[in-house]
UniProtKB/TrEMBL annotation:
Belongs to the carbohydrate kinase PfkB family. Residues 3-305 form the Carbohydrate kinase PfkB domain. It comes from Shewanella khirikhana. Pfam families: PfkB. This is 2-dehydro-3-deoxygluconokinase.
Length: 324
């Protein structure tokens, strides 16, 4: 039986622009409410694949918080560690899509519940029967949530868990409009599994990218992944590397693409163990191919939670693309 995946961070509302209507000469954008937040998406991705996912974080004691709690539970995510802040609101994000399905975000998160998580709330029981802790950088944008994030990572490591980090930089959430490299690197340096988008790697690498990657691998990272939209995924482990093509799909909405990918990988890590996946090139290729397929399926549909695939669909898609 696979162990649990624990995802910590923001659960928020994605208002996805679905077009516009004309009214009295005005073009009025139409937004549809979806549950979202990168670590919440990852938890749902694991749960929809049949894995054991638990989500920890804070939402408001409001209708949006109710919606998120109900949505996570709907997909089988354990929400026993989801807190409800008595006064702070649930954070909101308005998602605008261009003609290619790529998105831009407008966040309403200042003073949001997810930014107010207290490190003192973390208990060692969080890590029981758990294989991996998954984190993203958006909980680093305020001092209080940054302290909680790094504390949770340290406690997970002490409990023998792997730490997974999807860098997932959203510069407009940071004071001054750009992410603090030192703060982000404090989390990156704790990770056993790292996922960068190409532009995030370029932003954080102070030396050449290959030197930067090798330094992280030499200091404890076991698997480092670099995604680039629909272009091939690069994987680095030990002194080795792989490049895997992404299948071509009709892109509708890229919101859950990265989370679908990392969720597929987290599911495999919890099921098989990270060391087992890294044992041979073939086992790693198979796990990454499966994860890439999960991400590809997610971008072919709108929204986040509803777009993520179930196990039968993900396995059939992976088999069709790998010639199995």
């Amino acid at each position: 039986m696979s162990k649990r995946v624990l995802c910590f961070g923001e659960a928020l509302i994605d208002f996805l622009c679905t077009g516009s209507d004309e009214d009295d000469g005005l073009m009025l954008p139409c937004f549809r409410q979806y549950p979202g937040g990168a670590p919440a998406n990852a938890a749902v991705a694991v749960a929809k694949l049949g894995g054991h996912a638990r989500f920890a974080g804070l939402v408001g004691k409001d209708k949006f918080g109710d919606f998120l709690a109900n949505s996570l539970a709907r997909y089988g995510v354990d929400i026993s560690l989801l807190g409800r802040h008595v006064s702070a609101p649930t954070s909101l994000a308005f998602v605008h899509l261009n003609d290619e399905g790529d998105r831009s975000f407008s966040f309403y998160r200042d003073g949001g519940a997810d930014t107010l998580f207290d490190a003192a709330a973390v208990d060692n029981s969080w890590f029981d029967n758990t294989a991996v802790l998954h984190l993203c950088s958006n909980t680093l944008t305020t001092p209080q949530s940054a302290e909680a994030t790094l504390s949770i990572a340290d406690k997970a490591i002490a409990a023998g868990l792997y730490v997974s980090v999807d860098v997932n930089l959203r510069h407009n959430l940071w004071q001054g409009g750009s992410a603090c490299k030192e703060t982000v690197m404090a989390l990156v340096s704790r990770a056993h599994v790292l996922k960068f988008a190409r532009e995030e790697l370029e932003y954080l690498a102070d030396s050449t990218q290959i030197d930067f990657i090798q330094t992280l691998l030499d200091s404890g990272c076991k698997l480092l992944l670099v995604t680039d939209g629909g272009n091939p995924v690069r994987a680095f482990f030990g002194k080795q590397s792989l490049t895997l093509a992404a299948p071509k799909v009709d892109v509708v909405d890229t919101t859950a693409g990265g989370d679908g990918f990392i969720g597929g990988l987290l599911y495999r890590i919890a099921r098989d163990g990270l060391d087992s996946l890294l044992e041979t090139e073939a086992t790693l290729k198979d796990a990454l191919g499966f994860a890439i397929g999960c991400g590809a399926l997610a971008v072919s549909r709108p929204g986040a939670f509803p777009a993520l695939p179930g196990l039968a669909e993900a396995e059939a898609f992976h088999a069709s693309k790998s010639g199995v």
